[in-house]
Design brief:
The protein is α+β, with helices and mostly antiparallel strands. It has helices spanning 3-14, 30-39, 77-84, 125-128, 202-209, 213-225, and strands at 46-50, 53-59, 62-66, 87-102, 113-114, 140-154, 168-182, 199-201, 229-235, 238-243. It has six helices and ten strands. A hairpin with a 2-residue loop joins strand 1 and strand 2.
Length: 245
């Protein structure tokens, strides 16, 4: 982890003319841009056309794709890229987050308010289900980057305070907390929720990981596929799972 290099990447992006048009008007979101400059300060490596697809970063060591969500967008790229070079998927996770509200009409920005949630590695699991067919490919690696950031949201939602279902403007990184590298099937153990017992039911996993029923099902399937957990019976009417050694 290189916090100084990350700070330099933030400075490169924030002080770039791309920021002059303001929050919420950028074609490339700030987290994505900062990560590109952190992982490859040489911008000639950015946005390279490779086998009829554009890759975020191409270096002699391989291809880097930064994906903040919607891993299904990688389904067409991955089989093409993996035939030619190793691929690392970089997934940013908000570590400590401060929320700020933007009034579109006045341009006023609220003071920042700290979220009580702390980012967890298990957040990537539901997204990985969308590319489950490639997880065992020896050329595919994952890189989780935990970022402290400010999230800006528009006051354009429902309700008196206009915050319900409000639109997201941008997320501005302020620091690098830690990084996790998944380089082999054994490393998928690092995605197991820290607060969870080795034997558990789905409801307990959901609470420890912090997501709902649809994401829960996908996450459990990924961990079973990568042999992190196995189904070992039932506890009442619920399936019982055990973490494998």
């Amino acid at each position: 982890m290189n916090t100084l290099l990350f700070e330099q990447a933030i400075d490169t992006v924030i002080n770039n003319p791309r920021m002059e048009s303001g929050i919420g008007t950028l074609s490339e979101k700030t987290v994505h841009a900062v990560l590109k400059n952190y992982l490859a300060p040489n911008q000639s490596c950015h946005e390279i056309k490779y086998q009829n697809y554009y890759a975020d970063i191409v270096t002699p060591e391989g291809i880097i794709e930064i994906q903040t969500q919607n891993f299904d967008r990688l389904r067409k790229k991955l089989p093409v890229f993996l035939k030619e070079a190793p691929v690392t998927i970089v997934y940013p996770i908000p570590h400590i987050k401060w929320l700020r509200w933007v009034d579109k009409e006045s341009g006023e920005v609220s003071p920042r308010r700290k979220s009580p949630k702390i980012g967890k590695a298990s957040l990537i699991l539901p997204e990985l289900y969308k590319i489950k067919d490639y997880l065992n490919d020896p050329g595919l690696k994952l890189h989780l980057v935990f970022i402290d950031l400010e999230e800006y949201k528009f006051l354009d939602g429902w309700g008196k305070d206009r915050k319900n279902h409000a639109g997201k403007a941008d997320r501005i990184p302020v620091g690098l907390a830690k990084e996790i590298f998944i380089n082999s099937p054994a490393d998928y153990q690092l995605l197991f929720p820290e607060a969870l017992n080795d034997t558990f039911v789905a409801k307990e996993f959901s609470k420890a990981a912090g997501y709902g029923s649809i994401a829960l099902s996908s996450a459990l399937k990924v961990l079973k596929q990568m042999e992190v957990i196995e189904q070992t019976g039932k506890k009442g009417r619920a399936f019982l799972y055990t973490r494998k050694n």
